[in-house]
Design a protein that fits this description.
alpha/beta, Rossmann fold, 2 domains, six-stranded parallel sheet, two-stranded antiparallel sheet, globular
């Protein structure tokens, strides 16, 4: 099989992040910020998580994820006109305090650099964040936006993981056959669903699982049970070295692409 495109997950795949700690601090910074605007900051966080899950559940192809989120979030107690500017400010300021929790994975940076010009690359992070938040994490991980032909964000996408439509939409943006795509990720629940579209899947099996703390599809950490499932479900699994060998074995020679 030759890959016309490779879709890389970001958190836990391209970059190293303690997702449980990241989510804990992320919601903590949110709660601290909105305490300046509401007497119920804890209720705000509950609403934020609820609206995010509603965005993930959305299957209306006429709504971007951004539109689906704010449609679910906005109501009399949480008006869009007030909280959208607060959210914009959050991702320009408080969100940046999370940088110390993100570490570079030199092996993944090297792999992405080696793949430049050899096949189409997509940053297939779950599109539950604004693009500015995605680019921040990408930069913290030592990667540049122009390494990728497409970057999934909630402003542009109409589906989230684990909906198969998420992966299909990326293939459409890249103008490639889904059956000629490889999906690389560390989260079996969110990433390996791509096999339903005939996409090949590689489970990056290098991190220790964590205990789950939040319910819902959008707020998810990889547990040891998830890792076991990943080894069973993925077409292939292994560490970064195994991933690199697998990818380059499946790259079409340039001469064949030109013919």
């Amino acid at each position: 099989m030759f890959w016309d495109a490779i879709l890389f997950d970001m958190d836990g795949t391209l970059i190293e992040v303690d997702m449980k700690r990241f989510l804990h601090d992320y919601f903590g910074y949110w709660q601290h910020l909105v305490a300046k605007h509401t007497d119920e900051p804890a209720e705000f966080v509950k609403k934020l998580i609820w609206a995010t899950d509603k965005m993930v559940e959305n299957t209306d192809e006429n709504l971007t994820n951004e539109q689906a989120f704010w449609q679910a979030f906005s109501e009399e107690n949480w008006p869009y006109e007030i909280y959208k500017p607060i959210a914009d400010s959050f991702y320009d300021n408080e969100f940046l305090l999370l940088q110390p929790l993100v570490k570079k994975r030199p092996g993944m940076v090297s792999l992405i650099q080696k793949l430049q010009g050899k096949t189409k690359l997509a940053l297939a992070t779950n599109s539950v964040f604004p693009k500015k938040a995605i680019l921040s994490r990408l930069k913290w991980g030592g990667l540049q936006p122009d390494y990728f032909d497409f970057i999934a964000s909630y402003e542009q996408m109409h589906y989230c993981k684990p909906r198969p439509g998420y992966f299909l939409e990326i293939a459409e943006f890249l103008n490639v056959d889904p059956k000629r795509c490889l999906v690389v990720g560390d989260d079996p629940q969110l990433d390996l669903v791509a096999h339903k579209l005939g996409m090949a899947t590689f489970f990056l099996d290098i991190a220790t699982g964590q205990d789950a703390e939040w319910d819902g599809e959008a707020i998810h950490v990889v547990t040891e049970d998830d890792r076991k499932k990943g080894r069973e479900v993925a077409d292939h699994f292994g560490d970064i070295t195994a991933l690199e060998k697998f990818i380059f074995a499946g790259l079409r020679p340039k001469a064949e692409k030109d013919n």
